[in-house]
Amino acid sequence: MSYSTIRSSNRWRLLLALALSAAAIWSANSDWAVYAIAQYGEPKYPADFKHFDYVNPDAPRDGTLVLANPNRLTSFDKFNPFTLRGNPAPGLGLMFESLTTGSADEVASAYCLLADDIDVAKDGLSATFHINPKARFSNGDPVTAADVKFSFDTLKSPQALPQFAVYFGQIARAVVLDRLTIRFDFKVATREMPLLAGGIPVFSHKWGMRPDGTRIPFDQLAFEKPIASGDYLIDRYDNGRTISYKRNPDYWGASLPVRVGTHNFAHIDYKLYADAVAQLEAFKAGEYDVLVEHTAQSWVRRDIGKRFDSGELIKREFPHHNGAGMQGFFINLRRPLFRDVRVREALDLAFDFEWLNRQLFYNQYKRTDSFFVNTDLQARGKPSPGELAILEPLRKELDPAVFGDMPQQPDTDPPGSLRANLIKARELLAQVGWTYRDGALRNAKGQPFVFELLGDTGGGASMEPVAAAFGRNLQKLGITMNFRTADFALIQKRIDAFDFDLTTVRLPDVQVPGTEQLSRFGSKYADEPGSDNLAGVKLPAVDAILRKVLGAQTREQLVDATHALDRVLMNGYYVVPHWYSAVHRIAYRSSLAYPAKLPLYFAADEWVLSTWWQKTPGLNLASPR
């Protein structure tokens, strides 16, 4: 169930996921050039592979896919997905490509896309990419090394989202060697660097160029159509509410193995609805084709009707192996009220997941108890010797609890109870000086414990019963929680400015932690507006562990470092964790089909866009039943 603001409100961040969670291998003795790179071992697919296993290479490439809001945004005012100001149109990721792309059945690999050759230096301090001479932008211009450098320099500049400066911060420079060859020099020789370089989105230096040769500042680009190399173009749009893409008839890369069987629709249309209720009713009325359902109650009780009964609309759950990410009530430590860890733990104790799962979620969820839940990166039990080797030098800076068993989330199933949890919470609050008197929980100055939970109107109707239940439990402690909703765009602005007490957010999952963890938990970014360090974590010990995560040279080192990070974060109670599911719930029109083999690691929306197709009568390409 996802009532949350997905922190990657800019859709491009999701397209970076593979690049930000993978790293390259290199020879200890010599430079080499390859068609693909993998984090550990070898890429799954050989050099002569024809297509990925999870696509249908014979799928018809026609028809129109109509979709609704992929997030909480109900309107858009720009075609630039890389800047902080404004709301980007949905689907813009269809227009942009990078030097490499990942596969969805490997946790960390990258295959040539715009590039046709990758050369990683033996010392790991640089990677050179040769660009495919056939690569073209939508205006017909060839993709050049100068364009790649322009894209990199622009994204690292203050005109772009601050996350890019974080993600690419360890890439020192891009050097054009010739028209089709570019080298990236790295500040550190981590195994992630070549993949980060390969994942940089590329666009033409002519995007934003006026006829007189002057340039519109990058952060002021609005409805200037992107000049990029992807296989779709903007066809039409209307009032920031609808947008239609069409396949570029001159797309350069249709025969590439990484593109065979993908992006099978001739047109992709988006219709943006004002709220979740209108969106669901529009789907049931046949106004669009696919509904990715994030709400358990809707899946069970509302995604029903005559079109489902007749078979025109189909409901199906698709298992995945994704890490679940972290969704929960993020607590803002910039507020003095929440700086003591005992206060934050008390809030966690007041959250009754078991009751919510029974009463609202139809027992469809599991409680999130890790920042890396549903993966082997989740810490369990007591620290292993490998974890202790990382944690022991930091012992003086860390809570002693870090060296014990991983904290368990409060449980209200017998023999546990909400009463016992609230008694413990009251004791913790009393230790900090919060006591109940005059009808409220008050500090030594007599000030009541009052805070605001921030939520958006798009998810507000669904979130309200969760917030209400949480608020009732807090009220038993004498705490007043005010639940405030607003339009998603306004909420996002407040979150970017860290103007909240608690807010509901989901950090997207990663299969292999990397540079994105710096933005989420690094001290440097705690005060950087727009960063993902929502809680405001500023601990030298966390920074030290993050360096271990980024510098891991083996899978074992990465697992130990991530376990250590997980222990410190969970013991810090920076989030009241929510829940997760290991399936995607998708309702769709029966005229659509999908490949028989599912990928292992995939986001539902991206999977539909990239591998589904419109059935054509007579071809017998129906989805498996």
UniProtKB/TrEMBL annotation:
GO terms for biological process: microcin transport; peptide transport. The keyword Signal applies. Transmembrane segments: none annotated. The keyword Membrane does not apply. Residues 1-33 form the signal peptide. Residues 113-521 form the Solute-binding protein family domain. GO terms for molecular function: peptide transmembrane transporter activity. It comes from the Bacteria. This is Extracellular solute-binding protein. It comes from Paraburkholderia sprentiae WSM5005. The lineage of its organism: Bacteria, Pseudomonadati, Pseudomonadota, Betaproteobacteria, Burkholderiales.
